[in-house]
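FAQ
Q: What does a multi-component entry look like?
A: The components come first, one per line:
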Amino acid sequence: MFDFQYYAPTRVVFGKEAEMQVGDLVKMYGGNRVLVHFGGQSAIRSGLLDRVKESLDAAGIFHVELGGVVPNPHLGKVREGVQLSKEHGVDFILAVGGGSVIDSAKAIAYALADPENDVWELFAHTRNAKGCLPLASVLTIAAAGSEMSNSCVITNELTGEKRAYDDDLSRPKFAIMNPQLTATLPDYQTQSGCVDIMMHTMERYFTNGGNMELTDELAEGLLRTVIKYAKVLHEDPENYEARAEIMWASSLAHNGLTGCGNDGGDFASHLLEHEMGGMFDVTHGAGLAAVWPSWARYVYKEDLHRFVRYAEKVMGVVREDQMTDEDMALAGIAAMEDFYHSIDMPVNMSELGIHPTEEQILEMAASCARAVGGCIGSAKVLHEEDMIKIYKMAL
Amino acid sequence: MFDFQYYAPTRVVFGKEAEMQVGDLVKMYGGNRVLVHFGGQSAIRSGLLDRVKESLDAAGIFHVELGGVVPNPHLGKVREGVQLSKEHGVDFILAVGGGSVIDSAKAIAYALADPENDVWELFAHTRNAKGCLPLASVLTIAAAGSEMSNSCVITNELTGEKRAYDDDLSRPKFAIMNPQLTATLPDYQTQSGCVDIMMHTMERYFTNGGNMELTDELAEGLLRTVIKYAKVLHEDPENYEARAEIMWASSLAHNGLTGCGNDGGDFASHLLEHEMGGMFDVTHGAGLAAVWPSWARYVYKEDLHRFVRYAEKVMGVVREDQMTDEDMALAGIAAMEDFYHSIDMPVNMSELGIHPTEEQILEMAASCARAVGGCIGSAKVLHEEDMIKIYKMAL
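Then the predicted structure of the entire assembly, as tokens:
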């Protein structure tokens, strides 16, 4: 067991029509001039943006808006938000959307708190943030967990680099979670979200250092819940209870709770996928599903007992006569692939619809190794040559 | 499933020698003049108080101290702390101790933020708090969960009334949790703590309204963990890993996490025990163990499926042929009693060592009914006559 800090100060307001409280909440946290940041047309078409603006108006809060955030959000949009916020004296950033919009909002908030320096330096890891404007979200996609996390991932569209920056300064003040807002999401997005949610906890579960029984119990319970309700939503996408289970799981999977007492997590699958996302612009969760089984088969021998425990407690694999620990671990990975297939998620890059060349694989591995300073992983430490092997296994 | 808010902003600093960071943490949260509040001699004898003061000195923070907080902390000590704090211009309250000390610190912090009004009015529920000075803790007993909760229980020693006040204003800024600090606790205190920890989650689990699968999974995992490590500590009290599991469980059991999506919880067992604590000054957790089995047998038919689920998932009761749901529920309650006995906890008031007279039972029930405005409970709503019956069952 490792020492740890746990810090998740975000106030969660969860339930039907919760977005109607947004004006009062911004006011409670001292916001007077708000940048309303969002993605595409769906927030407009659904009427959500209007409801948010009405609530802000009712609370007497000035607001200016900026849409157009794309998945794998771009640095250029961040710079646009910074410029607009400066022009209007914005003091609070409100993200209306999913992880991409919240991540873009976090980057804008960092930039506004330190206007002297280029915000990309945070993502290039050449300096740490000095501050961050207060920010919050009205969540519309359950996946990234950015609504409670200290993480933020931005893509520099000029260089193709997709980089993360983690800092508690960017923990959002509040998160409004109305599961109804996710009910119209296409199944592919919903299921990609479920994969991402699980992976945030699996990255913390498969570590080769110490662990805590309580953390493992919480992680396993969360994973079983997501598996159960991902399948429900695949059949019945408007099921409110299932939407609610998945939405709350998205926050708890990535707010630090499921990592207490471990060594910070593995996160190799995430970093491997980041390169795929940077090069091919794939949906993040689907990309994770395409790489995880190969990662798992590459590393499981280093962390055999946890893969056995995972098979038993999460995937429900029952040990039959003569099954070795290795058989159990592999059966757990296969069961995970079966689950991915059951919700129409890929288990390799070919099923994901991307076919990187040998050269592109070498480039992704080199970029990944560069981004992490040589090696990644806890379950097994991976160097550039390991990354190449995993990408090839995942073709 | 009910709508909910979740808000647990306390920064947890968990691990060996974590108390050495207290000075820096107080500074981070803006404290300049600190009241160090503690209980008996053990914090002095163990050297903990000296280490805390050294850390405050090193950070250049003024401090004044007040010890002598007793279990079921007294209003008189709160008033003493308020007076002392006013004399020294205190702006931050640091509790060094367990739930009683933290609760006393919360009451002092409420009083200092509103010096015009009597703080007991909060506990008498005649008004709400306007503010609360920042407070934090160095935790030495895993039990009450007060280190992350919004709850606070004070006893008016002049009237014998023991009353709770809940308000997010009193959520502590940080909690320093070094499991080593609990290693010398007598077994009776340790096990009473384990009972209390479980009960904070059980109060939220046995509700008759909606529920959330994710919350149930987290609750069940937490309860299994406490059962496992309470037994370990009964045999091996200095086991660091077990102390750590129990300590972290104490916070998560009462910070709101295990109640998300339910109707706020039952809390009848707690309120019934509060009257026993007010009249007889029993150890809180042991008092809960003495009343819960009787409460459970009185209410289980109203909430049968949850009692069956509890028996299966928490107590590990296996359904044998011909066992009805009622048999399962009762087997779960009996298994809980076996667990209490295995850690030398009582299952009724006689084993607890108190023998209230008929008159005293009527007085406790009347006081409880008065305190809650007539009735309590969610699993089953209890009126004064129900409380009398449960107290008599628990003799």
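Q: Is there any commentary attached?
A: Sometimes. For this entry: The two ends of chain A are 36 Å apart (CA to CA).
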